[in-house]
Amino acid sequence: MIYELTQEFFFDAAHTLERTIETDSSRRIHGHTYHVLVSLRGQPDPKSGMLMDLGYFRAALAKLRDKLDHRFLDEIPEIGPATLENLCAYVWRELEGELPAIARVTLERRAGGDRCTLSRD
Ligand SMILES: Nc1nc2c(c(=O)[nH]1)N=C([C@H](O)[C@H](O)COP(=O)(O)OP(=O)(O)OP(=O)(O)O)CN2
Ligand SMILES: [Zn+2]
């Protein structure tokens, strides 16, 4: 049996996107509310009973949120084109140092019903 511990946060950000459909509206600067779910996987420490203290987990996510909330994502070159797929990869890269048990990252734009998940295994 394995445990999965999940935290969620959201951020609001703007971007543009080059596409071959709906080109004009995508090229215009527009914004989305993104919900980010991050899961850690593993076994709890027998003494603490925790996979990771949620205090440390939340602190790592808060630092990342500061880099994304109310930003123009086109100005963050490490993301590349600001798609859900690239944002999942960016979030993973940003967190894996502090959260080595990271196992799944999901980005959602709930207003449009869009969701993308990156997972290990
Ligand atoms: N595979 C992907 N396709 C698209 C992505 C993506 O991240 N991955 N992103 C977009 C754009 O961000 C686009 O702005 C979303 O377009 P759309 O679905 O038409 O939604 P709207 O912006 O019109 O409406 P919301 O309710 O704000 O989502 C396109 N394709
Ligand atoms: Zn968009």
UniProtKB/TrEMBL annotation:
<dbReference type="InterPro" id="IPR007115">
    <property type="entry name" value="6-PTP_synth/QueD"/>
</dbReference>
<feature type="binding site">
    <location>
        <position position="30"/>
    </location>
    <ligand>
        <name>Zn(2+)</name>
    </ligand>
</feature>
<feature type="binding site">
    <location>
        <position position="32"/>
    </location>
    <ligand>
        <name>Zn(2+)</name>
    </ligand>
</feature>
<dbReference type="GO" id="GO:0070497">
    <property type="term" value="F:6-carboxytetrahydropterin synthase activity"/>
</dbReference>
<protein>
    <recommendedName>
        <fullName>6-carboxy-5,6,7,8-tetrahydropterin synthase</fullName>
        <ecNumber>4.-.-.-</ecNumber>
    </recommendedName>
</protein>
<comment type="similarity">
    <text>Belongs to the PTPS family. QueD subfamily.</text>
</comment>
<dbReference type="Pfam" id="PF01242">
    <property type="entry name" value="PTPS"/>
</dbReference>
<dbReference type="InterPro" id="IPR038418">
    <property type="entry name" value="6-PTP_synth/QueD_sf"/>
</dbReference>
<dbReference type="GO" id="GO:0046872">
    <property type="term" value="F:metal ion binding"/>
</dbReference>
<keyword id="KW-0456">Lyase</keyword>
<keyword id="KW-0862">Zinc</keyword>
<keyword id="KW-0671">Queuosine biosynthesis</keyword>
<keyword id="KW-0479">Metal-binding</keyword>
<comment type="pathway">
    <text>Purine metabolism; 7-cyano-7-deazaguanine biosynthesis.</text>
</comment>
<dbReference type="GO" id="GO:0008616">
    <property type="term" value="P:tRNA queuosine(34) biosynthetic process"/>
</dbReference>
<feature type="binding site">
    <location>
        <position position="15"/>
    </location>
    <ligand>
        <name>Zn(2+)</name>
    </ligand>
</feature>
